[in-house]
Design a protein that fits this description.
single chain; 11 strands; globular; 19% strand; alpha+beta; 8-stranded mixed β-sheet; binds asparagine
């Protein structure tokens, strides 16, 4: 999609209207579910001196502003944690736009955009079990609402959605690796009929590693079924300064870039939290049964592809 004409046809496609209606219903379901569960919505930040380091190759996006180097947010993980420094708030979510300048080799995965939105949720003084319960309920509610509200749209798109059985199944990554090999995420997603959880991935410094069982991480992903792949990722968080520093060093993280965050952890003031982020466009791709994530975004930002508007 490189010409103005292509981009206009993409916007004008009949399916786009159905897809946007499904997206609106799913987002309404999320907001309603959050509100009734006392999860407060806070506004996202797009520029910050610090952002998620991310655990994979990508390009940085930053701007110089009055002598300060500000990065475009790759995720709001660290701000989410800090927002719960407010003593009267223990559950928060953001509709967080993320800019991740991914490499062009991810163009055809069908799942990657270099600009996307996630529903970023964080809970204070709770465990992964609490978080999983909240998300299971949210997903069931989204399905139910979308299927009820968007009968015509789903039909026009030729999409049949089966309501999932909750609680969703939980697998350990090791268990699936033994069963399916290195491609276990893809294969398990292809074989599944309902969304499911996988726990324990070695990732960024902020996901909590078990102190008694090094190499075990209290984090997780949710996967969509039918091969649609990753839906949400998150975990219990590190909040102790020494652990954060240890893990940053292990991952060769640029410690200086996190100076303000570390000045808070040094004082023992990082709240103890658990959370995760649900990719909005990936969810819509799954709900509407589209092949490529490009097809569910009005103004697609596909890795390596020219941007028209
Ligand atoms: N939102 C994710 C989380 O809460 C972080 C990410 O997107 N990398 O863990």
């Amino acid at each position: 999609m490189t010409t103005v004409q292509d981009a206009l046809s993409h916007i004008a496609a009949e399916d786009m209207r159905h897809i946007m209606r499904v997206q609106s219903a799913a987002l309404k379901a999320i907001h309603d579910y959050m509100y009734s569960n006392g999860v407060l919505q806070s506004m996202p930040v797009i520029l910050s001196p610090m952002t998620d380091p991310l655990n994979h190759p990508h390009f940085d996006a930053n701007v110089e502003y009055y002598g300060q180097r500000l990065q475009l947010t790759k995720s709001m993980i660290l701000q989410k944690q800090l927002s719960l420094f407010n003593g009267g708030m223990d559950k928060v979510y953001f509709m967080s736009p993320n800019v991740r300048l991914e490499e062009a080799r991810l163009r055809d995965t069908g799942r990657h955009l270099f600009e996307f939105t996630q529903v970023d949720i964080e809970l204070k003084d709770r465990t992964k079990k609490d978080f999983m319960q909240l998300v299971d309920g949210m997903l069931a509610y989204i399905y139910e609402f979308v299927v009820r509200e968007c009968l015509d749209e789903l039909k026009a798109l030729g999409r049949e959605l089966k309501l999932p059985t909750v609680p969703l199944k939980v697998y350990e990554s090791e268990e699936l690796k033994d069963r399916y090999g290195e491609q276990f995420e893809t294969i398990a997603s292809e074989k599944a009929e309902d969304p499911f959880w996988i726990t324990n991935f070695r990732r960024e410094f902020y996901d909590r590693e078990d102190k008694e069982r090094r190499g075990y991480f209290h984090n997780y992903d949710v996967f969509w079924p039918e091969g649609y792949g990753e839906a949400l990722s998150g975990g219990e968080r590190e909040y102790e300064h020494d652990e954060i520093i240890r893990k940053m060093k292990e991952r060769s993280t640029d410690i200086g870039a996190y100076a303000t965050y570390l000045s808070v952890s040094e004082k023992g003031l990082i709240p103890r939290t658990v959370g995760g982020g649900l990719g909005v466009e990936r969810m819509v791709r799954y709900l509407t049964g589209q092949r490529h994530i490009r097809d569910v975004t009005m103004f697609p930002r596909v890795p390596g592809e020219k941007v028209v508007f």
